[in-house]
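Hi everyone,

Forwarding the result from last night's run.
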Amino acid sequence: MIQACDPCLRRTALLGLLAGRIEIARRGGGQLRDVLALPDDELLAAVAGNKARGLAATVPALAAAQRDAARRAGLAAFCRHSDRYPARLRDDRAAPAVLFVAGRPERLAELVGEGEARPPAAAVVGTRRASPEGLEVARLLGRGLSAAGVAVVSGMALGIDGAAHDGALEAGGATVAVLAGGADVPYPLRRRRTYEQIVSRGAVVAEMPPGFHAHPWCFLARNRIIAALADATIVVEAAARSGSLVTTELALELGRDVGAVPGSVLSWRAEGVNALLRDGAALIRDARDALDLVVGLDAAARAAAEARAAGPVPAPPDLDPELAELLEAVEAGRDDVESLVGGPGAAASVQAGLMELELMGLVRRLPGGRVVRATGQAG
């Protein structure tokens, strides 16, 4: 489905042609969003120098090539003049001219739809060099938000972003990945399986042309799309200078909420998030706090009630037998490690099993070390 006009398709192609020069302009101190907000002729004049006239002569023929490339890649495309273009993106003065979509186009509309009825969405972002604890928190946030019907938006990067996507997928929900390159180019390659799952059940989106491989500035440009698509941006781990903090700055400029998961004052991974909290970001300790930020206390309470009414989250049919046995014991009322340990030296394996079940969304921990069966229908 290609709902993109020629001028918008030409703009996208022009960004691809000028990508290297835009990177040079950014390194020279130019403000990226100011550059991306320029009309085509001003953009050419600003970054192409003496090549501007020659490049301008090639622009008229680019729209048809972009349309054909999108069709060959199996991508949908919606320009900002289409009623299928996500309404949240229109809040950004430098919004992408075209959004290319890998996956079912109607699924994108369901996740970040238009008008007052559009569903809530939350961005979960953070460092690529995440700690094990950070990865666990991001996955649990992704799972909890998705299970409550909130679309999880992130950048599919290694670390926090990927863990948030994984959690959303594990909950049986859908998620939106925003890529810095073409929507048909899985990046990073180590995330190809996640990419395929998101394409199947959610949506992968990008503003750059099909087949495009990202320059460094494209990742910063991607962050503005992540911030715009979400009602709130939540940072799990981030250094003092981090692309995730750029995302929160953009979110605040767009009037969106920002939350942060606190971290140790001794960890470089927590410098950015703790600074956000100092400056007034919402404190996020778990998925309940995240739901409160995104949809409000009443809606979060309703979601929790609906989850309880739905009964236990079903276990996957291929669950490891040892984990299945542990899950049955929790269902039977054995709600702490001491009662679950079957013999000497087994405490470590029980703890590891409980953590794995928690990451899968099948159990949850309560104050005092108790463990209970998680409720709410996944899928």
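The mean pLDDT is 85.

Cheers,
N.
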